[in-house]
Specification:
mainly alpha; 2 domains; 168 residues; single chain; 7 helices
Length: 168
């Protein structure tokens, strides 16, 4: 059997309730994927996803929960007015952790479906992610970039050009 965080922490019943609406429902785990599953696609070997994907998913989920708890605790302390400087210094790291979580989500998604498409269990047209661009998003990004450019031009003018004109 493979080590499972949900089993070791005793939250498997909560997960089964979230997934199936019953505390008594059985959750499938990595061990329940039959080794001969790929025989359907005529692959002669074990094509289950690598264990790294299993563990990356739990790291991603754990970091997400920690980041959410940190945000909740920080919000409560800010409302009370006693946020310590140590928590403010940790706050600098939260965007980095959020980016790591985002990368881990991408890695789990991409590496998780790759074995299935390589071994022929999943076809390539099903495996790809099609996220067409939203025109409103493009317009919003363009508006933000134009605003930043105009703010930069204004800052350069006020800091560099305007003082030199006043001195003359």
């Amino acid at each position: 059997t493979i080590f499972s965080f949900s089993r070791s922490l005793g939250i498997e019943k909560i997960m089964s309730f979230i997934a199936y609406g019953s505390f008594e429902a059985k959750l499938p785990d990595y061990d329940s994927i039959p080794k001969d599953y790929c025989a359907l696609a005529e692959a002669a070997f074990d094509c289950r996803p690598p264990l790294m994907i299993h563990y990356l998913y739990y790291v991603k989920t754990g970091l997400s929960i920690l980041l959410g708890l940190y945000a909740l605790i920080s919000s409560i302390l800010i409302m009370r007015g006693n946020l310590s400087p140590i928590l403010l210094k940790i706050n600098v790291l939260t965007p980095i952790v959020a980016q790591i979580i985002s990368f881990l989500g991408w890695a789990v998604r991409e590496m998780g479906r790759k074995p299935w498409s390589i071994y022929g269990v999943m076809t390539v047209d099903v495996a790809h992610t099609a996220n067409p661009g939203d025109p409103l998003s493009y317009g919003l990004i363009a508006l933000i970039l134009i605003s930043v450019a105009l703010a930069l031009i204004l800052a350069i003018w006020k800091l560099l050009y305007a003082p030199s004109v006043r001195e003359v």
